[in-house]
Structures are given as structure tokens and as C-alpha cells.
Amino acid sequence: MGRKRSFPLINSQDYSARNQAERQAVNFVVQGSAADICKMAMIKIFMSVASSSSLTARLVAQIHDELLFEVEDSQIQEVAGLVKCTMESLHCVEALGVCLKVPLKVSLSTGKSWGSMKEL
Questions:
Q1: Distance in angstroms (rounded) separating the CA atoms of residues 80 and 86
Q2: Where does the chain show beta strands of DSSP type E?
Q3: CB under 8 Å, gap of 24 or more: what pairs does 64-70 form?
Q4: Considering the entire predicted model, what is its pTM?
Q5: CA distances (Å), 22 to each of 4, 8, 16, 51, in order?
Q6: CA 12, 18, 20, 22: dihedral to nearest 10 degrees?
Q7: Which domains does the chain have, with CATH numbers?
Q8: Partners of 63 in the β-ladder
Q9: I want to staple 7 with a disulfide (CB 3.0 to 4.6 A). Which of 15, 21, 34, 103 is the partner?
Q10: What is the sign of the dihedral through the CA atoms of 32, 38, 39 and 41?
Q11: Cα–Cα distance between 95 and 93 in angstroms, integer?
Q12: For residue 50, how many other CB atoms are within 10 A of its CB?
């Protein structure tokens, strides 16, 4: 997705330094791509909520690949459907020429607090 990062120690004679650079190179692609997908989801969900006359959900936090929303009880099902559909649809981003070979699976939970979360 256009990210670039150099790993100067990737060809190091020092086994430990080279091994660490190799791990970082692999993680960079996986974690960077996950972050990009999550950011695209946040933007699309925000745009959908902002353009809706009835939805009032607010994105409260992003924790790695998880999004935490504050949603009125009466809107939970509608927002849950929007979030799930939006996030799962990002397995193929035609504008970037990126299409994953595996589907993105999204699980949703709801609750009044972290300790009371139940899967939807």
C-alpha cells in the first residue's frame, strides 16, 4: 500500500542483528497493512455516520485492530451492521490494486463497560 521502510541490518554479518531485521521486515508488512485497513475502515464508517440523519455513533478509541464506538442502545444493530459490512468489504481495495486472498472476518461485541462485553 505504498509504505516504505529501510532495514539497514538485513544483510548484516551479525546473526542476531540480521535475524531481528528479518523479523521486523515481516512484521512491518503485516502490521502496516492491518493499520492501513483499520484507518480506511474508520474513515468510511465516519463518513457513513456523518452523512446519516439518524445515526449518532462516535468512535471513542482505536486499539490495534479494534475500534470502540459509543452507540445509543436503539442504534446498536444498525451501527453493528454498518461496521461489520464496512470492515469486511475492505478485503479488496481496487483504488490501491490490493485484493486479499482471504476474507476479513469481523467480530462485534457490545456492553455498557469493558467487563460486560458480549459478542453480538
A1: 10
A2: 58-63, 66-70, 92-93, 98-99, 109-110, 118-119
A3: 64/34, 65/34, 65/35, 65/37, 65/38, 67/38, 67/41, 67/42
A4: 0.80
A5: 15, 10, 10, 44
A6: 120
A7: 8-119 (3.30.70.370)
A8: 66
A9: 21
A10: positive
A11: 6
A12: 8
For cell 444493530, name the residue: 77
Query: CA-based Rg of the chain, rounded to a whole angstrom?
Result: 18
C-alpha cell at 93: 481495495
Burial 86-111 (b: 16+ CB within 10 A, else e): bbeebeeeeeeeeeeeeebebebebe
Q: pLDDT tens for residues 17-67?
A: 999 999 999 998 888 888 888 899 999 999 999 999 999 999 999 988 889
